[in-house]
Amino acid sequence: MSSASAPMLLDDEIEPFGADGPNACWFIADSAAGRLRILYGRLEIVMNILIVGCGKVGSMLASELSRMGHDVSVLDREESHFALLDSDFSGYTISGVPIDQDVLKRAGIEGCDAILAMTEDDNVNIMICQMAKEIFQTKTVLARIFDPKREKIFSTFNIRTISPTSLTVDMVLAALSGSYETRHTLIGNTTLSYYTVHPQKEWIGRYLKDLRLPDTHLLGTLRETGEFSLIQNDQAILRPGDLLVAARVIN
């Protein structure tokens, strides 16, 4: 969400939505990412999202995003795939060829804040994302790809990607190396893996700045007290019970 402040509106410009009273939900403005609303005292963004592909991943995403209050449309070649959606899914479904412009328009692509291409065909996913960006000027596009080698092709078109193949390999390697916990963050077209590692016993008492992990950037240490010490701290020493916090690029 942009760091710019939300537009100020007069009381009669605010459109009420939901229950009356102190717990009411109010749509208050449009932002670059979607509509802004206040719900139970919290400022939230409501997005209009089109998900292409209603397999296991696409249907789970659609169900969860709908449950979060977003406006979700799901497009798939096979109408039978919509049975995978949760019973409380409140969005819109449409069957048709996903790379057909008329079908995409019927699915609401012209008013979407984000397109998630989640089919099982990498070529279809890249075509959908290209059309979304170049023809419909969709702000946010994200594609799932199975072949990590194709990520460079996607990045050429400035398309953000998620590769389940790369994520699976990274998690298996992390488990084999004794990593305690792993989290992934997508920055641009690069996926970073953050994880914690139990240090070797002979490292206890050494300065953090002197420690090295292969093919990994060591960030710091997490104390048993919950305190985090950065590796840039020249005086930080590894203590018993500490966990090393590290990161690496996985695509």
SSE blueprint and pairings:
Elements (H helix, E strand, L loop, with lengths): L14 E3 L7 E6 L4 E5 L2 E5 L1 E5 L3 H12 L3 E6 L15 E4 L5 H6 L7 E4 L4 H13 L5 E5 L6 H6 L3 E3 L1 H13 L2 E9 L2 E8 L19 E6 L5 E3 L12 E7 L2
Parallel strand pairs: 5-6, 5-8, 6-7, 8-9, 9-10
Antiparallel strand pairs: 1-2, 2-3, 3-4, 11-12, 12-15, 13-14, 13-15
Could you characterize the architecture of this molecule?
By secondary structure, the chain is of the alpha/beta class. It has 3 domains: 11-46, no CATH class; 48-162, NAD(P)-binding Rossmann-like Domain (Rossmann fold); 167-249, Regulator of K+ conductance, C-terminal domain (Alpha-Beta Plaits, 2-Layer Sandwich), CATH 3.30.70.1450. The protein has 5 helices and 15 strands. The protein has helices at residues 56-67, 101-106, 122-134, 151-156, 164-176, and strands spanning 15-17, 25-30, 35-39, 42-46, 48-52, 71-76, 92-95, 114-117, 140-144, 160-162, 179-187, 190-197, 217-222, 228-230, 243-249. It has a 6-stranded parallel beta sheet, with helices on both faces. It has a 5-stranded antiparallel beta sheet with strand order 11-12-15-13-14, covered by helices on one side. A 4-stranded antiparallel beta sheet has the order 1-2-3-4, with no helix packed on it. The chain is elongated. It starts with 14 loop residues before the first strand and ends with a strand.
